[in-house]
Amino acid sequence: MPGTGSSDVTGVVPFAAVPQVYDPPSHTIVTANQRPVSNNYPYYLGTSLYFDPGYRTGELNQFLGDHRAMTVTEFAGLQQNELDLSGLPASLLEDLQQWTLHDQGNPAFTPPGGPARNATAAMRTAFAEAVRSLSAKLGADPAAWYWGRLHSRAIPSITGYAALGYGPYESGGDPWTIDAADGGLTSSFGPSWRMIADWTGPGTARTASAYPGGQSDNPASPWYENLLSLWLARRYLPLPGNRGGHAGQVSWTLLPGA
Questions:
Q1: What's the rounded Cα separation, in Å, for the pair 57 and 63?
Q2: Does 219 sit behind a cis peptide bond, omega within 30 degrees of 0 on the bond before it?
Q3: What does residue 65 show for φ and ψ, rounded to 5 degrees?
Q4: Which of 23, 38, 121, 208 is deepest in the core (most CB within 10 A)?
Q5: CA distance 165 to 151
Q6: Could you count the other beta carbons within 10 Å of the beta carbon of residue 153?
Q7: How far apart are the C-alpha atoms of 136 and 9, rounded to whole Å?
Q8: How far, in Å, CA of 50 to CA of 46, rounded?
Q9: pLDDT in tens, 192-221
Q10: pTM flag (> 0.70)
Q11: What is the distance between the alpha carbons of residues 205 and 32, in angstroms, rounded to a whole number?
Q12: How far apart are CA 205 and CA 200, in angstroms?
């Protein structure tokens, strides 16, 4: 910001207008970094570049709408979904998607100075080039081609020191899958803490979780990465139940030093 005052905050969104939802008719609430308001919202919340374009949200709403009585296992499968139905939603690519579906003769499909072609011809050319590229990188047998041979996840250390991080590991997913993996072919952004809560009645719940790391920040400790293999294997650990307080709850009292 320039520091001149031209970028200072000039007001706030009234509390009553803060985006919120309570007990919607669908009985589901989905948030996946999408824009939380429509175009007619009267307050500035940033441009579309600040938000996910909504492909993950659409898949989540579709799945939840089709599965009204879900088990913990089904929720785990949803969290780990790596199916991309969107393509790559950058501005030009979103235009290409619309032209391909609704304007297949658009001049955008013809390269400068080249012969005229339509969406079908452009897709065939792109497909042939993709096959050539993958054959050069992964071999001639398409049965051995899978996304994890090109794409991986790396889990950086909170210190930023590369030697203390984890990975990279072969991985599926991309920025637009429910189990998101952002950051290029070596992804370092995506869901970490996974949690599922099965509400079994008032004041009770059966919960399970996993996260990619360990229970210690000390790299020499056997607990430094003891939960990583669990997370990579897409497994969960049960959490203690909460019935009037956590089991083994400890209270600390901080006193001033001498």
A1: 10
A2: no
A3: -70, -30
A4: 208
A5: 17
A6: 22
A7: 53
A8: 6
A9: 889 999 887 777 788 899 988 888 888 888
A10: yes
A11: 24
A12: 5
CB neighbours of 87 closer than 8 A, spacing ≥ 6?
93, 97, 176
Gap between the Cα atoms of 58 and 82, Å rounded: 14
Total Cβ atoms within 10 A of residue 99: 18
Say which amino acid occupies 144: A
- How many residues are recorded in the chain? 258
Q: Are 61 and 30 in contact (CB under 8 A)?
A: yes
Which tokens is 257 given? 């030093």
Task: For residues 193 and 230, give the distance between their C-alpha atoms in angstroms, rounded to a whole number.
Answer: 12
DSSP the chain: --SSSTTS------GGGS----S-TTS----SSB-SS-TT-SS----GGGSB-SHHHHHHHHHHHH-SS--HHHHHHHHT-----S----HHHHHHHHHHHH-TT-GGGSPTTSPP--HHHHHHHHHHHHHHHHHHHH-S-GGG--GGGT-EEEE--TT--GGGSEEEEE----TTSSS--BSTTEE-BS---EEEEEEEETTEEEEEEE-SS-S-S-TTSTTSSTTHHHHHTT--EEPPPBSSSBTT----------
Amino acid code (one letter) for 177? T
**pLDDT single digits (tens) 212-251:** 888 888 888 889 889 999 999 999 999 876 554 444 556 7
